[in-house]
Write a structure and sequence with these properties.
With 400 residues, this protein is of the alpha/beta class. It has 13 helices and 16 strands. Helix 2 packs antiparallel against helix 10, helix 7 packs parallel to helix 8 and helix 11 runs parallel beside helix 13.
Length: 400
């Protein structure tokens, strides 16, 4: 049997069985039709069954599905690396592929630690991270995360001596650097928008100050844009606003078709490994890194993003959402937050949202709130009337 994610298997409700998906719609076995307002965990930005992406998979499959990058290479991986080098800001030029966002963050953290070890500096063992951070469910990503609801298993080890968590406040940032700057190898953030930690949004001034302090004290800055990349914040990448040393991408990288991710390092980080000494090599190698099907569909996904002016689509999504949720309030609501292609209604008590998933299902919408957060991360191809329907269902919940 399937062991489902984030569920107590003994008490969980049966999942909705999907037989087909097209555009922004999921088609369950019962004959109903659901707007997917969370984009399959924020990844299917082009919708389902996109003919361009379908064709990319089929065309590559005629040659081969996968060839390992250990001692071998192939054109799809080379082309995707070259495209990202051209497309990403600054000197983010060196692509290390992996098979999931969590693993790609692990790679980034490993890069940051080894960067200093390769220079003979073994004192920089600490990471500066954010309160309410979520970077994945593998062990080091849980350690730099800060969410008891997901990572409580780490309580078995006690408080980590290698990670400091701070709020998104400049004073706290400056205090942390004053106290730990000579022990930090990196600072890692979900820039502007913290996803699974509660769709928390903060100002770019915090990132600008972080960049200044990292430069001042020689600390590497890592942006985890697995969720925020490809337009979700209204920016193509937050890295276009503030340039990190290491950028992590996943989820929408392949348009939601296949699990794939990339850790992109700048020239300084790459040169820290480029050596005649074999011990300075990055000893990491996921089996399916650079998967040819994933690289091929990622190239087409990027082309769609560029050619069809997705930033304008996202701006329209944000505008419609602001219009529909403007002035919306309820005594049970703590805050309404909107940024780019994300919106969130945070309630005071998570019991307020009990039964919402079923309520939305009956009204043709798939939304999956968690804890106190009722949120949307819609596909960018969603039409205005479909988006209005989603937002109306959210509002109706508080009025029924």
């Amino acid at each position: 049997m399937i062991w489902y994610p984030y569920q107590q298997m003994k008490t969980m409700q049966p999942p909705i069985k999907i037989r087909r998906a097209e555009g922004v719609y999921l088609y369950p076995e019962d004959g109903s039709r659901l707007i997917d307002a969370v984009s399959s965990w924020w990844s299917t930005i082009h919708g389902y069954h996109n003919p361009v992406l379908d064709d990319a998979i089929r065309t590559q499959l005629d040659s081969f599905a996968h060839v390992m990058l250990g001692g071998l290479t192939h054109e799809p991986a080379e082309r995707l690396s070259a495209k990202l080098q051209e497309w990403l800001p600054g000197d983010l030029n060196h692509c290390f592929f992996s098979d999931s966002g969590s693993v790609a963050v692990e790679v980034a953290l490993k890069m940051a630690l080894q960067y200093f070890m390769n220079q003979g500096d073994t004192q920089r063992t600490m990471v500066l991270a954010l309160e309410h951070a979520y970077h994945g469910d593998t062990f080091k990503t849980m350690e730099v995360g800060d969410d008891e609801d997901y990572h409580f298993v780490l309580n078995a080890y006690g408080k980590s001596k290698y990670v400091v968590h701070i709020p998104t406040e400049i004073y706290a940032l400056e205090q942390a650097f004053a106290a730990y700057h000579d022990q930090l190898n990196c600072m890692i953030v979900e820039p502007l928008l913290q996803g699974a930690g509660g769709m928390r949004m903060y100002d770019v001034s915090f990132l600008n100050r972080a960049r200044q302090l990292c430069d001042q004290y020689g600390v590497l800055l890592i942006f985890d844009e697995v969720a925020t990349g490809f337009g979700r914040t209204g920016n193509r990448f937050v890295a276009d606003l503030v340039l990190p040393d290491i950028l992590v991408l996943g989820k929408a990288l392949t348009g939601g078709y296949i699990g794939h991710a990339v850790t992109v390092a700048n020239e300084k980080v790459y040169q820290g490994f480029y050596s005649d000494d074999p011990a300075h090599a990055l000893m990491h190698g996921p089996t399916f890194m650079g998967n040819a099907l994933a690289c091929s569909v990622a190239l087409k996904s990027i082309a769609l993003f560029e050619d069809q002016n997705y930033l304008e689509k996202i701006k329209k999504i944000e505008s419609v959402t602001c219009r529909e949720l403007s002035g919306f309030t309820d005594p049970r609501i703590k805050e309404v937050r909107i940024m780019g292609g994300c919106s969130c209604i945070e309630v005071l008590d998570e019991k307020t949202l009990e039964g919402f998933k079923e309520f939305a299902y009956e009204r043709g919408v798939f939304l999956r709130p968690f804890l106190r957060y009722l949120y949307t991360m819609v596909p960018y191809v969603m039409e205005e009337d479909e988006l209005v329907q989603v937002l109306q269902v959210m509002k109706d919940w508080f009025r029924h």
